Amino acid sequence: MPAPDPQRLVTDIRSWAKECGFADAGIARLELDADLQHLRDWLAEGFHGQMEWLARDLPLREHPQRLRPGTLSVISVRMNYRGDAADADAVLGDASKAYISRYALGRDYHKLVRSRLLKLGRRIEAAVGPHGYRVLADSAPALEKAYARNAGLGWIGKNTLVLSRTAGSWFFLGEIYTDLELPPDAAPAADNLCGRCTACLRICPTQAIVAPYRLDARRCISYLTIEHHGSIPPDLRPLIGNRIFGCDDCQLVCPWNRYAQRSPEVDFAPRHGLDAPQLVALFAWDETEWLRRTEGMALRRAGYARWLRNLAVALGNAPAAEEVVAALRGRLDDPDETVREHVAWALERQRSAAAP
């Protein structure tokens, strides 16, 4: 099979990526020196909390060839996920309801993005012949945001998310590490396209964005409700509000998301009414029902005990109501010590709210 023209191949890859369901694709430069130093400084400040793997896997992030031997190029793709869920601001404004980050309302994105990346990889292989490649869907140590920026898919905003002029930030990223030598895209967008805007810093409920482009995960609601094991710091619990899995505030307020594109993926549509559920109803799920209703969803990442822990915090922040107190009392003897602790805290909050 004759060797294809590299530039024509890049054009074809973009076209094939869209056929596979991606909104955009590009070829990333592999130079990440500034990004790696930023990561080292972030780790040194302890901003990663309990996520020790971020430090442990640093060598794999530094050298893509260690993650996939022979890598010469990284293909970066984005897939939109914004769907027709209940209005996020309305749910956040109703403290009797549970707010779940909009990315987690449908099918687990890891599975869908990975399957589409494999399809794209096979399409490339059909055109150029057998070659070595590996697909990544938030599934291995990679600086995916930096690669997306280097591939021209956007810039890294003050909220530390990748932002696009034409798509905002409501999208997933994925990569193909390949031993094909592909010409990288033009210089990435500058980091100052956020301009003077500081909306994301001001809106963050826990002030986790401590400075532009710097996030203290230990204060981030997404980290606290998904990655953090054990007890949530008591001083942060009232600030979490009714957010039980993740947080979207810095995206909801971002002006660039006026350009966010709707996703055609039916797999990202909300399941089981989880885009605007009642807190008390979710707290009543036993583990069997939780496993059934979250099958194939990213919600599984938190685990059942953390799910109850998070709901207990939200119920503690809910308006005083007899049904809330009854639901909490029903779990005072939960087998999990952390759940019991947060239930007791929530009951005390309810008593204080109900006191004349």
Describe the overall structure.
This protein has 356 residues and is of the alpha+beta class. It has 2 domains: 169 residues, no CATH class; 156 residues, Alpha Horseshoe (Leucine-rich Repeat Variant), CATH 1.25.10.10. 40% of the residues lie in helices and 11% in strands. A 4-stranded antiparallel β-sheet has the order 1-2-7-4, with helices on both faces. A two-stranded parallel ribbon has the order 3-10. The longest helix has 20 residues. The protein is elongated, with a radius of gyration of 22 Å. The mean pLDDT is 95.
Shape: elongated
How many angstroms separate the termini? 81 Å
Put simply, the count of helices is 17
- In spatial order, strands of the major sheet run 1-2-7-4
The secondary-structure element order is HEHHHHEHEHEHEEEHEEHHEHHHHHH
Structural class: alpha+beta
Percent helix, as a range, is 40-55%
Number of domains: 2
User: Unreliable segments (pLDDT under 50, ≥5 consecutive)?
Assistant: none
In short:
With 356 residues, the chain is of the alpha+beta class. The chain folds into two domains: 6-85 and 106-194, no CATH class; 199-354, Leucine-rich Repeat Variant, CATH 1.25.10.
List the helices and strands and how they pair.
Layout: H1 6-19, E1 24-28, H2 33-44, H3 53-56, H4 58-62, H5 64-67, E2 73-80, H6 88-92, E3 99-100, H7 109-128, E4 133-136, H8 144-150, E5 155-156, E6 162-163, E7 171-178, H9 199-203, E8 209-211, E9 214-215, H10 221-227, H11 237-240, E10 243-245, H12 249-252, H13 279-283, H14 287-293, H15 303-317, H16 322-329, H17 337-354
Parallel strand pairs: 3-10
Antiparallel strand pairs: 1-2, 2-7, 4-7, 5-6, 8-9
Helix pairs in contact: 15-17, 16-17
